[in-house]
Task: structure prediction
Amino acid sequence: MDPGATAGNPATTLRKRPAVSIDTSRRGGDGASSREPARGPERGEREEGSMASAPAAEEHQGSGGRGKGEEEEEEAVSEPMSPAGRLFRETHFNCYIVAVIGLGAPVDVAAARAGLEATLVRHPRFSSIQVKDDAKRHGKPRWVRTTVDLDDHIIFPNLDAAATSADPDQAMEDYLSSLSTAPMDHLRPLWELHILDFPTSEAASAVVLRMHHSLGDGISLLSLFIACTRSAADPERLPELPPAAPRRRAGPPPLSAGLAAITMWVWSYAVLAWHTLVDVVCFVATAWFLRDPRTPFMAGSEGVEFRRKRFVHRTLSLDDVKFVKNAMKCTVNDVLIGVTNAGLSRYYFRKTSDANNDRKKSQKNFCVRSALLVNIRKTPGLHALAEMMDSSKNSGAKWGNLIGYIILPFHIAMHDDPLEYIRQGKKAAERKKTSLEAVFTYWSGNLIVKLFGMKAAAALCYGMFTNTTMSFSSMVGPAEKVEFYDHPIVYIAPSVYGHPHALTVHYQSYVNSVKLVLAVDDAQFPDSHQLLDDFAESLRLIRQAASTT
Result:
């Protein structure tokens, strides 16, 4: 971490430990790093100002003049950035993923360093820097392998001992919030592991993994993290994940199935085409002019992507979620969407309770929309990801941001029956399953980049985000207890910041719990814990109603 990363927090300093450098560049010579500590770009700076040029990258890797053979070798250890990866470097989408991992034991630094050396730092993205070579690549950035110095990436914040003793949960929350405005040195691989070695109400200690979103999409990065863990029951085995739902549509039925079956199959594709067309028109209109109604959830002013965020989380029961799922004959995601409907509604109507009756009546039932990122590439299995971190093996697994966007509606309403929120969530999710909106937005985004450049694609995405209310995501974690470099994991709480939304809702399952994580504009949501309470109370009421059906 660069010296300027904690400039705004006089109570925080960094402790340095003996250096351990890992050469992953496969270059000739000793591969030693010769760079001096450099200050990373401030949040919100332009991509051109935060990406290493080719000469700077050569100095960073300790190389002098290069001949033809060296240039050919560099080609073998570099690759171009994907369009989505480049988007996450644009001014209004300079996004970072921050994941809090609660541990069941104090941090064993030596074990953590050994684990990082054997796994994460050997992954191509986590051992590469972003280089922009105007002469050779026409300004297009690429990934170049480099030497990883763990001292640059393992952060030991010295927090106020009185604060961590008096209210450790608040101390951790405040530290996480400070990371949302802390710079990261872009002359180094774009990730950090922060060690918070003090007990909180949920865990004996915690580590915080902060990564630039250009390293990969959320699902791929979470899968990579899980591939670094091992089963607590059998430390030699990778964890077990719940089976993934099939993603392919059924092929045409045989002629022997009859006319009715063939007609239904044709009709399903007609519905798919129609829903895709409607969603595409809605997406384009949203990017240009179609704006959600003003609510307490929407960003209050421009520039929210640069402002300080607060990350709060609450543990929910996965057993309760599954009970509702079985009672309502739907999916876990349907339930989570329904709980979000209910939680947002409770918060909204309490916040607007001082409004006049006419306004309350006119806004008793309306929709706000979320931007939902969808990974359209099948995520590599844990074994394939583990092999990506083994230099002696070639897994053939593909990596990169291969994501499309979906605009998902949430209903703000007052219902006497709590299960109505689940029915609305199920209806919205099933409607999106019969659309190729995510595939269209991915390919159309690539086409816009090729025809008009990255700035045009970023402007389109910016319009879509600023005209919608929030971001939403949910991810599946291990179905069994796991260990992170011999440390038992208690919870996993990931989130994201750097995009133009004041509210991001994320659900992360792990064993028999679901971690609800909210990333909120610190100034706009001073009562963020009350919003957590609304979600938890909504699930309780829904679970209670489901038990009587």
